Amino acid sequence: MKIQLIAAGAIASLALAGCATSPGYSGGGGYNNGGYSSGGYNNARCADCGIVTRIDTVASGRTAPSATGAILGGIVGAVAGHEISSHTGGSKGNQNISAAAGAAAGALAGNKIQQNVTGDSYDIQVRMDDGRVIMVNQKDLGGIRENTYVRVVNGRVVLR
């Protein structure tokens, strides 16, 4: 019984393997070259790629004292850490440690939030491969400079 099952499985595997195609033996138009047979090169254009032609800094116009985010975040984090530890049955020492850890995490988060709210952004002008010119505003450049080949993905410019 087991031999018949193994034999049937082997025959089915061989039959399916015979149906598979191998890219590279199809004489052009295979999977690897996108359907173009120009000496193995893919000359297709990237629909969402282009070259950065200009970068302008846009001031946010918002200001806040330098440590406001860190202080407020630290206070909220300390209270949250203490409350979570006290409601989960932590000892007094554990509550203090949780409050200190919460304060540190809250200060980091608050500082980052303040930077995002009050920081400058950048208008990035991109001349797309198809000739269009688009403008994207984003908070960080991420290594992007003028004359860099980039891709526009979900409203953000990223290095290609």
UniProtKB/TrEMBL annotation:
<dbReference type="InterPro" id="IPR051407">
    <property type="entry name" value="Bact_OM_lipoprot/Surf_antigen"/>
</dbReference>
<feature type="signal peptide">
    <location>
        <begin position="1"/>
        <end position="17"/>
    </location>
</feature>
<dbReference type="InterPro" id="IPR008816">
    <property type="entry name" value="Gly_zipper_2TM_dom"/>
</dbReference>
<protein>
    <submittedName>
        <fullName>Peptidoglycan-associated outer membrane lipoprotein</fullName>
    </submittedName>
</protein>
<keyword id="KW-0472">Membrane</keyword>
<dbReference type="Pfam" id="PF05433">
    <property type="entry name" value="Rick_17kDa_Anti"/>
</dbReference>
<keyword id="KW-0449">Lipoprotein</keyword>
<feature type="domain" description="Glycine zipper 2TM">
    <location>
        <begin position="69"/>
        <end position="114"/>
    </location>
</feature>
<keyword id="KW-0732">Signal</keyword>
